[in-house]
Amino acid sequence: MLNTLSYGSSDAAPLLIAHGLYGSGRNWGVIAKRLADRYHVLTPDMRNHGDSLWSESHGYPDLAADLAEVIDAYGGKTHVVGHSMGGKAAMVLALQFPEKVASLLVADIAPVSYPHSQIQFIEAMRAVDLSQVEKRSDVAAQLAGSVPDETLQSFFTQSLDLKTRKWKLNLDTLAAEMPKILGFPEMAGTYGGPTLFLSGGQSDYVLPEHRDRIRALFPKARFAKMPKAGHWLHAEDPRGFEASVRAFLDHVSGPGADTPATDR
């Protein structure tokens, strides 16, 4: 089973958060701790990330099956939040195992293929001379030449095990499977549960032309934006993201749970 961190009381309603590419469950610790006042928050490391299994396969049906196994271990049904790659995995989870998903919040991603690549970041991490690394700032300094964004530099350093001087990312598989990561599998059926697509107002990952595809798979989908955030909306505006999650979960769990939310 995926390595999974747990926050809050096991008696509370479970909430699983699936992280994005190059991330880990630990990256979500601050938000998870805050949401743990009302939910039993689970933050797994996705396969080929963190302390979870390494595999030669990284397709979304595989990732969804991994998440389903975690859900089974913690009661059999959860609210699910997924960002980017984790959002695609969460969508496939909901489509393949709808009985396991109480509600679905997809953060800044759509069920479509994207033309851009993330391979440049793998190349940047591969180029780091780990024999010269003593602290995370050494890694950031080496990454700076190819990754000028200091936020991304810091993000990538969180996936390095300083003691062993090894990346906690299966870079070879992630590179080989990049077309699957950027794509989205053909899926039969729909997920009829409450669904929110929450996107960054400064991001172009979820566009108006994606809505027909989204609604074909998720007929109860509604849409909201965080105006000041980009793709990394949970990191750029953590309090705003937390508030959006709480509002959505309050809506789907409250007395009017069967009444659709208003598009924003």
What does this molecule look like?
The chain is α/β, with parallel strands linked by helices and 264 residues long. The protein has two domains: 4-114 and 183-253, 3-Layer(aba) Sandwich (Rossmann fold), CATH 3.40.50; 119-172, no CATH class. The chain contains eleven helices and nine strands. The strands form two sheets. The chain has a seven-stranded mixed beta sheet, with helices on both faces. The protein has a two-stranded antiparallel sheet with strand order 6-7. α2 (60-73) crosses α3 and α5 (136-143) crosses α6 (150-157). The radius of gyration is 18 Å and the shape is globular. The model is unreliable at 258-264 (pLDDT under 50).
What is the CATH architecture term of the largest domain?
3-Layer(aba) Sandwich
The fold-level CATH name of the largest domain is: Rossmann fold
Element-by-element helix/strand order: EEHEHEHEHHHEEHHEHEHH
**What spatial order of strands do you see in the largest sheet?**
1-3-2-4-5-8-9
Could you say how many structural domains there are in total? 2
Instruction: Round the mean pLDDT to the nearest integer and report it.
Output: 95
Number of strands: 9
How far apart the termini lie comes to: 37 Å
Low-confidence stretches: 258-264
**Rg (CA only):** 18 Å
CATH superfamily label of the largest domain: Alpha/Beta hydrolase fold, catalytic domain
Number of helices: 11
The helix content is 25-40%
**CATH C-level category of the largest domain:** Alpha Beta
